[in-house]
Amino acid sequence: MGRNIHDIFVIGGGINGCGIARDAVGRGYSVALAEMNDFASGTSSGATKLIHGGLRYLEHYEFRLVRESLMEREILWAMAPHIIWPLRFVLPYHKGGIRPAWLIRLGLFLYDHLGGRKLLPPTSVLDMRSDPAGKPLKALFAKAFEYSDGWVDDARMVVLNARDAADKGATIMPRTKVVSARRENGLWHIETTDTLTGRNDSHQARMLVNAAGPWVDHVIRSAFGQNEAHHVRLVQGSHIVVKKKFDDVRAYFFQNPDNRIIFAIPYEGDFTLIGTTDRDYTADPRDVRISEEETVYLCNAASEYFKEPVKPEDIVWTYSAVRPLYDDGASKAQEATRDYVLKLEGEGEAAPLLNVFGGKLTTYRRLSEHALEKIGAAIGVKGAPWTAKSHLPGGDFPVKGYEAEVAKLKRRYPFLTDPHARRLVRRYGTKAQVLLGDARGIDDLGRLFGGDLYEAEVKYLAEHEWARHGEDVLWRRTKDGLRLSKEQAQSLEEYMAARPAMAG
After folding, report:
1. Number of neighbours of residue 270 by Cβ within 10 angstroms
2. Are residues 415 and 482 in the same domain?
């Protein structure tokens, strides 16, 4: 393996690493990627799962980031209409509230006009005394503003970028830790360890991309042996999931007295997602968990708006992640820039290194394009930008074609219930037919693990999407962990453990 010299070796299997690998291999570079755990096992599956411009970033004058994010919303939606879809947000307002109405109107005007909005509907004003969106809220909120953004299945977006990169020829290595990287004779010499088998491998590359997210400084210190690395500000964001608080298909944007905001979002049909928090984090990112303080904060903040309070006992699941923001010296965690920073190192004959700091789901594609500009300047340009008109695997159908895809799947597989068909199209798009194959009845899908998770789907995830453990299936490739009992989840884990490891 060491004799095979790659153009680019990427460290990190989150959205930025997988996005850069996909873009690069699509331009003709030879690419390898190593992720020490499963794809999206860190920050990229711990987001609020929005494709959004970042309305609140306008307050911090992040106009470039907001404009780029707004322009990306419809590009990404067209790339992956199975895992991304439009979502309307209701921003309740009352006199004497946190922000004056004129400021909200100005922000929403900019939001409507800064970016390339073509398909998403514009901002409107709601009378909450008559609009259904007012029903679950306290009577205090007689008025609201409604605007557009998007929803994304974040972990699926990561793995689909990895899948497409592999399909285009990249060497994709999950559960592979980079233990050292050194420059020698104009090349990077990289040593890796397979965390499942213990196998050690050597690789060579003309250029190294460090996209390790919260671990980017750790990689600089440990793998490269550089002691001084303090570029990242780690900010913890936590979320709670409760049983469904409202029937409306729209989400809510709640403003808090401390000037922070949270969202309450319809989630997986039967639940409501509430988050996020923003607080500095100093421990190991692997150990991040929601704190009691954050739980109480989210419950209290949502209860300021909902007629029916949100209580800790309502929570069915929590998740927490660490965002690796570029340390710009901001005094508060919520004020630290969400923009990304790309730093190129390597002068003269030294093999170049690109360190990736910050970023967000919405801007990952543009971050990748900017990374490729720096890569081209360092080792030579190959190919032109191409991802804006591309599709992620399964997303090759019209941007507003979800309902038609569901109908098509139900015609071909009439034994599927409507919720099952909808979930399959949401997860896999046109690839749902590959998953179902020649099945003529529900029994052909094999063992039922719980909910509507059948053996055929689990096999597909193991063979095509690198799923190795029950957790990979239940919490990253799907969210069926919300519907399976502990006994059913254990049964799935035992099934996965008995399966031979798949190369993906």
Report:
1. 12
2. yes
